[in-house]
């Protein structure tokens, strides 16, 4: 086996090493990358470009995600994106669209509305232009959602929260605990609903769901009390003695800084305040950050193996930033190609330069460390097949056999 | 040197008439494994909580007297300020985890204490090796087995190098092999690192031989006694079968291990040499005999069940006759619960068939189903919704279309002296199990399934459960129980079925199956081998019968 296994691996030369704890990519890098893609998606309504962005994000997710629970969220985000497009289209059809159109698809019966509801229309003419405009608009939102979903699937949320500054640590823990509770809650609901069947009550339907509500909440409450006790016994919330002077300075800096940020933002947004806006915002931010830094001194916590920001993280974050920057630049240059017109209806074209820019976003699929095979995702559910259908033996692909067996073993433990 | 010192400690919770524990005045020396023994409800968890400071800082209530741990007074030190000297693991390891992967979990306590990063790294590596977790370091905790989770929980409190470890029922939910795994680790900590371990456990047969001292709380409100395990076992109301056998043989000092028992009870073996071993537990002949020609209560043929993409069961054949008791055994995750769930129709077979009294469970409507089969789940609380026992019983009568009062009569029979207006949540584990059992029995199902019924039960509650289930079997109920408890299986089951990785690997009369297996053999069998005795009760009644014949 030792001489057989490396052959297919050697043929595929990789830029990236196998992932382990020490070379794990900083979760912030994944977020910057995906926010870059999302910015790019928000700058265009060209369905071809948005499709390309979604494809790039999907490819990177497929190449680099693990079998961790959060990695499954990508599918949920894709479904959500489809729902968003659907809702946008339904609104455009039912409530009408401000886009003047000539290609009539269908005329819905219009609901007569009283005078005071002037400007609102239900039903009426549905034009191809209006539908296409709504589709483009929905696509843009969907693209944004899918990019965020990609970051969710690739970056461990717990590790991201670990990178928060010390003063925000407690808030981070609260979020982590909430995230581990959600799956437990769902498991509780399922268990209790099936228990209803054991008492001879229907285990399906809304009523069943409502009746288990109280026991589920009780269980969740009990679990959180037990967790709080465990955390307390493990030293959560130990604080260092901080001189009163430092404490007061922290409070003053944080409060003053936040006030400054508010005032500065207001100044920037109103026409009159544009002169003082920027400096006030800057001072406020600096004060708030100083307050956070000082506040961190109260916490005695240290960090175990924090993720380091190495060149791979720069490359991943940089590729996302580059996509965003190039798209913004393209927008100021050749805006027409990025926003295909709907009146009159024209077929969208793929502008080459922006498309090439989007492809830069594929970089993480080559430089980010590869998850080890045991952690590679396995299909969640396969259609049950009668066990006696024999699998044709695949002699040519024997090197893959140990891999599938290992991943199935990890899956077995989850049940 | 004294590590834990109790000075006239008593704890009383808000609204309770009597203190939960009182008169605790003793000291635990450094580097000892102390086992806290007593029936349910004597305040074992409370006593453990006073050591970590969770009682009274977290739970409320009033603590009188003083507890000092490594010289720190728990009245003035909050649990978090004791975190570097006391490590606590509660009953449910899942409720203990704060992070999501093994390595982060091991580091969590040290991070809270503010240890230097290089120290943390070194200790995590050491602990991974000490507990045999190195292969699991990157695994999400939710994907680990029960034994692995328990080891991670212990490891997570070990990394700050506490001098005292407090454990509440560390092996109750584990199969025999996983329990051995955890206990081996504890023994190593005591021997190699000089850690003081204070532990409460109901399954004495697993742990008593490891204890240096036993802390016995014989009854609620009685002051605890600390002393030599063998001496205290002689007066303890709860004791493992090996001690029971030792008492029977009149051994002094009482044996705590199978090895000691073999040596000290040689006389007993001679006395038993002439006595015929009864076939299986009481009623076995009747039950099995009646079942031969009757319709089977449950019949499973070439059953395969999938959970997600995992084949939880493969080609399982099983048939249970009326009046027969079958014990399903096997490690955690072997498919025992899946088989029970399939028999009540919670899961549909992927192939093969499961029939209960001739009907297909997963196609039956719930109201119809409960007349054919009843399941008491692992957590009996899942079956209880109402806020009083009386309300629960009335609901059960309605669900089963039974005459009003049917369920209440069953409760009175199984659990005498329980008030109508008690909240099910305030019952003890054993009482809750009895209530759930009564609810299930209201519909008079011919097939009764129990999943892990003895988890959290003390010996007294277990003995009552055994009596009840034997009575039900004698009335013709077929009973299937999934359990890790070999002693329970030996007491109760006519047949034992062992599952491994979703397949049946052994199926036969209890005596044949468990006697031949080193991990599933009950203690009495090990002691009296090669004679095939299973339980101390069996030996006692056989001796009584033999001597009764001899005297007249």
UniProtKB/TrEMBL annotation, chain A:
Subcellular localization, as worded in the UniProt entry: Membrane
Transmembrane segments: 44-62, 74-95, 167-187, 251-269, 275-294, 314-332, 352-374
Entry GO terms, CC: plasma membrane
Keywords, alphabetical: Membrane, Transmembrane, Transmembrane helix
InterPro entries xref list: ABC/ECF_trnsptr_transmembrane (IPR003339)
A Pfam family this chain is assigned to: CbiQ
Membrane in keyword set: yes
Biased composition (Low complexity): 395-407
Residue ranges, annotated region (Disordered): 371-415
Main subcellular localisation: membrane
CDD domains reported in the protein's UniProt record: EcfT
PANTHER family found in the cross-reference section: COBALT TRANSPORT PROTEIN, PROTEIN ABCI12, CHLOROPLASTIC
Protein name per UniProt: Energy-coupling factor transporter transmembrane protein EcfT
Organism in which the protein naturally occurs: Streptomyces typhae
